[in-house]
Each structure stands twice: as C-alpha cells, then as structure tokens.
Amino acid sequence: MAMERLRRDPIAPVPKHNLSGMKQPTLHVAPGLSAAGSMRMAARMDGRDDEVIGLPDSLSFGPIDYPDPRTRSAWVKDVLGYDWHDVVEESGQFWNRVLTTDKPRVLWFSRRSVMEYTAFLEGVWRLSDAPYSVLDITDLPIIRRNNRREKLPPQTGACVSLISHEAMLDSGLLDKAAPITEAQKAAYRALWAELRAENAPFRVVDAQGIHSAPLTFFDDMVRSCVITEWRKCARVIGEALGKDWESGYHQVGDLELFSRLQKLVELGIVESEGDMTDMRQSKVRLPAAT
User: Closest by alpha carbon to 194, among 142, 121, 112?
Assistant: First the structure.
C-alpha cells in the first residue's frame, strides 16, 4: 500500500529555500493562463524583474503520448468537438521557452488540480535532468482577504489559478520554491511514463493521487444536474463544476463537461432545444417518462 501511494503521489514535503537573494530574474512556469496572470501581477507589484509564462493547454484530457502534435489536435476536434490547433501550437512555443531559458526555473502547481498536476508532470518529463525548483501549493497556508481587505486565517490552496496576486504576496509564495530532488524527479517521471503509456481520454486526481479515467467518467455527474424541466446548458455545466469542487479537487473544466452533455443528447439520454454548440443558447431536460 505504501509503495502504491508513492507511485501515485510521489512527492513528499521538502524544505523551503528562500529564492529572494537570487540576482538573476526567475522564470515562473505557471500551469495555466489564469495562474500566469496573477503571478505576473504579483511579481510586478513586488518589484521583481521575473518572467512568467503559462501553459495554454490542459493535459488532463486527450492523448499525452503522441508522435506528432497534430495527433492531439485531431483527437480534441474529433472527440470533444473543439478546434485545438492553435492551443497545441502555442503550447509548443511555451515548452520551447521553458527548455531554452537561461533563467532559474520555478514550476508552480497543486496536486489537487488535475490540470496543474499534469502540466507539472509534463514539465518534469521534458526538463529531464535540467535544474529547476518547484512550488507545490497543495498544503501551503494561503492568506486571503475579505471584502473589507482584512486578512483571513490561512487555508491550504486548492489550485494556483484560484490564488489572487494579492494572496500570493500576502502568503510570500514568490519566495517559497524548493529545489526538486533527484529521487522526486525519478518518481514523477515514472508516474508520467505510466500515464503516457495508458494515454487515456481523461486523467483525474483524488485522495489516492492521479490516475487515468475513461471518456464516460463524468457522464453521471453531468446527467445528475439535468432535471425534467428545461434548464440552460450553462446552468447544468455550472452545477456540475460545483459538484466537482465539493470533493476538494479540481477534476475537470467546462469544455469537457459540455462535450459530454452534447454526447448524452446524441445518445438520447438527454433532450435538447436550441443551438447545442453554445451552452448559453441551448437547454436540456430529462426525457419524459413513457
């Protein structure tokens, strides 16, 4: 059991080393564009000349072991129904910057967010033996403020993308990265190698770590938010996202859920009206009992 836990969740807390004494600007590698925006603002407000880049893709879905980037674009188009060519192309530019920079790198992520965890694992895979530091916010205390700008008691961070630039500064996150050990690198590479070999439609995170999941994994959750009365698709997806967060883990995004709702309509499990290519211009309901 202990070995299984290590295989699925290999990192252990490591001592935090203050990086503020570094003279050379840092490259902060953000697991998403929203997280990058907050990190960029925090660095600017702290008077730092750091660079921040964000991964535009989510490796929580689709193929992660492919010989040609067009393979991933084609899968997203065929299975989820979205044009992903530009996203994959921009991701290639993102990884090229991560690999070629001469700045010290810091990879940010949370093990409670599948999008962030997969981005981190891909970074470990691509960087191989290159030096870098890690900021895993999973168990870090994050200070937030209320509407009166008063500081609230710290809470652990669910994912980087939900931390404002102000909370990053209040919590001192810019100085809390730690070098990753060789043992941790090896464990993470082995974990990602296994997930790459499985190359499943989805990857999800829970208390047992990260693992592969089938394409239908979220169907029951989506269907549970559809009722016998007409309800806008955007509301259905919003409620499904809320259920996702109830577990304390960020498993999926709205694009994937809407794609599965469209599939439920196609299969006749759910009825629809309106433009089902737009979740704000369409409605769904459960079929009437016969």
Answer: 121
The CATH number of the domain holding residue 266 is 1.10.10.10
Residue 67's pLDDT is what?
85
Strands (E), 22-132: 27-30, 51-54, 105-109
* pLDDT tens, residue by residue, 29-51: 999 999 999 999 999 999 999 99
**pLDDT above 50 (res 20):** no
Which residues lie across from 152 on neighbouring strands? none
Burial code (b: 16+ CB inside 10 Å, e: under 16) for 173-195 equals bbebbbebeeebbebbbebbeeb
Q: Is 34 helix (H, G, I), strand (E, B) or coil?
A: helix
Give Cα 227 to chain centroid, integer Å: 29
Q: Is residue 167 located within the same domain as residue 227? A: no
Q: Which domain holds residue 264?
A: 216-285
230 shares its domain with 185: no
CB atoms within 10 A of CB 107: 25
Answer whether residue 211 is part of any domain.
Answer: no
Using a pLDDT cut of 70, give the percent of the chain over it.
91
Tell which residue, 56, 35, 37, 189, has the closest CA to residue 108: 35
Q: Are residues 174 and 223 in the same domain?
A: no
